[in-house]
Design brief:
This protein is mainly alpha-helical. It has 10 helices and 7 strands. Helix content is about 60%, strand content about 5%.
């Protein structure tokens, strides 16, 4: 029986096929978009599920929409592992961020920050359990994008400092309900800690560089837009807002900080690679 190729082999094959059909003038930009979409595959499928179930689901059906979303997310995760679309190290990252995200969901819903208005059976403390997969998709994206773009980080801060900052950011999502919100000081701390860190990445033949805080902001912007698409489906409702209310710019700062929590989680499982001469085995190339 022919075995399913491992993740890098599959991505390498896809990259060769993409390069064979893309015109030379548009190749780098097209490959950049393709790689980003491939890295965000988990989150993209979950976002598509939110939209399609909102359009198609009927309240009289025997399975509630929230429960269907949980089963869909579980099926996506199983398919990723079965067909080796993610590595086991990436799966561990997804599990870790799934757990931390679900814990925050329980607290935020009890605190009234947002709620889930629809019924469901697979719900704990007012939180449908598919929501944990939305956080997991962020961890999945970070772990996959580092590998797919063959990213290197230099100079990288001490890991203990990264983990301490991640813990402080995560704690602030809880404590700001009780004491002052330290969001802006924490944002300044991320810039100070990573101000000199450059991400070296490769799209096609050439290496590119970007300051890590800039990459984090652009990723947060994409997540904020995706959140608003999900918000417009009425899947969750923010406290004091009407159904399908657009999330304001303040949520952009929250996503920016949450990315550093995800990044800290990733580095706890997959150590960041320092800058060094490239090998000729990068994926999707």
């Amino acid at each position: 029986m022919q075995q399913t190729p491992d993740t890098p082999t599959l991505e390498h094959r896809l990259g060769r096929r993409a390069r064979a059909v893309l015109p030379a003038a548009a190749r780098e930009f097209a490959l950049f978009v393709l790689k980003q979409c491939w890295a965000a595959l988990f989150g993209g499928l979950m976002l598509a599920a939110l939209i399609l179930t909102r359009i198609l689901w009927h309240p009289d059906w025997p399975v509630a929409r929230y429960d269907a979303l949980f089963l869909i997310a579980l099926a996506i995760q199983a398919a990723f592992l079965r067909f080796r679309l993610e590595t086991w190290a990436e799966a561990r990252v997804i599990l870790a961020f799934h757990l931390t995200g679900t814990a925050m969901e329980w607290f935020k819903v009890q605190a009234g920050s947002w709620s889930y208005p629809d019924p469901g059976v697979i719900v704990v403390l007012g939180v449908p359990l598919f929501s944990g997969f939305m956080y997991a998709s962020v961890g999945s994206y970070i772990a996959r994008v580092i590998r797919i773009f063959d990213m290197r980080f230099a100079p990288f801060p001490p890991l203990w400092a990264v983990w301490l900052l991640s813990a402080a950011i995560y704690a602030n999502f809880f404590t700001h309900h009780l004491i002052a919100d330290l969001r802006w000081p924490l944002i300044l701390m991320t810039v100070a800690l990573f101000a000199r860190t450059r991400i070296s990445f490769r799209v096609a033949e050439r290496d590119r560089q970007m300051p890590l805080p800039v990459a984090a902001f652009l990723s947060a912007l994409a997540l904020w837009l995706a959140e608003n698409i999900g918000t417009l489906t009425g899947t969750w409702v923010y406290g004091g807002h009407a159904t399908a209310h657009w999330a304001g710019p303040a949520k952009l700062g929250a996503w920016y900080l949450l990315l550093y929590v995800a990044f800290g989680t990733v580095t706890a499982v997959i150590r960041p690679e320092p800058a060094r001469p490239r090998h000729a085995t990068a994926t999707l190339r």
